[in-house]
Design goal:
Radius of gyration: 17 Å
CATH architecture: 4-Layer Sandwich
Order of helices and strands: EHEHEHHEEHEEEEEEEHH
CATH superfamily: Metallo-dependent phosphatases
Length: about 250
């Protein structure tokens, strides 16, 4: 496998997406995989959808695309803020004649010894891979169980959805930070790679996040972008104001 860039959870944040695409171009990486949730929360769903459609070799469906398309998602409950953003996004996508272009997107892609999903290996659309007791995998034992039982036809699984960058192995969790952004991916080791979020990071770092992968190592990249511009767009277009505050705080 040649080097690929894996992005996820753009969430209608055009400024973040443009900054990430520019960094990917600087790295000389030609192949981009998107793990879904290009829309939702942010003020530019149409532009982000079109741009990923043009630039990404692989595009997966996230739970936000699913709900924008179908009107509801029996497998996932949105809070009031997210639901308002979903309804706003659906209307914008409808007016732009983009709803039909969501049809056909899948929530997973299996390629060689890698699986690409929006959620988790168990529920590729809706389930969160987490490190905490709040939703998704409830504890480390369940993560290990998934690594041992679900990883039969692949050794590495790239996930989005949770907006937090980390790796999970049978030995524990690994967190990227300024002193450690590169991780070896041994062919003998099973590993979850949570790629973080382009448009709405939730690890207290407002910089956009994505990974590159060359079959032997995973590298995390953090990219600053003018989030104040995105926040002002959110405040002026009728989306919930809390969505503007959270991108500045990275939460």
């Amino acid at each position: 496998m040649s080097t690929i860039a894996v992005i996820s959870d753009v969430h209608g944040n055009l400024e973040a997406l443009d900054a990430v695409l520019a960094r990917i171009d600087e790295l000389g990486v030609d192949t981009i995989y998107s793990l879904g949730d290009v829309v939702g929360y942010g003020p530019d769903p149409e532009a982000c959808f079109r741009k990923t459609e043009a630039r990404c070799r692989l595009r997966l469906m996230g739970n936000h695309e699913y709900t924008v398309l179908h009107g509801s998602n029996p497998g996932f409950a949105f809070n009031a803020t997210a639901q308002k953003a979903i309804d706003w996004t659906r209307e914008r996508m409808r007016k732009a004649d983009l709803l039909d272009r969501i049809i056909g997107l899948q929530s997973f892609h299996h390629e060689g010894d890698a699986l690409f999903v929006h959620g988790s290996a168990r529920d590729t659309l809706n389930e969160y891979l987490r490190e905490t007791d709040h939703g998704g995998y409830s504890n480390f034992d369940e993560v290990v169980e998934s690594l041992q039982e679900d990883f039969t036809a692949f050794r590495i699984c790239f996930v989005g959805h949770n907006h937090v960058p980390f790796l999970a192995t049978t030995e524990g969790f690994l967190h990227p930070h300024e002193g450690l952004m590169e991780f070896q991916a041994s062919k003998e080791e099973k590993i979850y790679v949570s790629v973080g979020s382009v448009g709405q990071p939730r690890d207290r770092d407002p910089r956009a996040c994505f990974v590159t992968f060359d079959a032997s190592k995973v590298i995390y990249h953090r990219v600053p972008y003018p989030f104040a511009i995105t926040a002002e767009k959110i405040r002026s277009c009728g989306l919930p104001l809390s969505l503007a505050d959270r991108i500045a705080a990275g939460r």
